[in-house]
Amino acid sequence: VHLVESGGGLVQPGGSLRLSCTAVGFTFSNYPMRWYRQAPGKERDLVASISSRGGNSNYVDSVKGRFTISRDNVKNTVYLEMNSLKPEDTAVYYCHTIVNMRDYWGQGTQVTVSS
Hints:
Elements: E1 2-6, E2 9-11, E3 17-24, E4 33-38, E5 44-50, E6 57-59, E7 67-72, E8 77-82, E9 91-99, E10 102-105, E11 109-113
């Protein structure tokens, strides 16, 4: 199992970014996927999750209405569309899944929201 994130960067407050996470090594369409983030000096927190077929998604309250998680089970990719970004969204963002009761993480992608 291998997860590779991309799409992070520096953006001004109010801006947008789309993160991608491409998965290999397992049957992607069978597993829920999640995005977490970790700000400096803080714990890694769940941001959003999506069911295996994409019919259900959940978000932490702080990003509801601004972030959208989606997936393409043909491309084996999960996305996180982030709009109206705030400085407090600054963090390393990780995608995550659990396969055969084992946790798998990507390497993370840095998102910095600053003017």
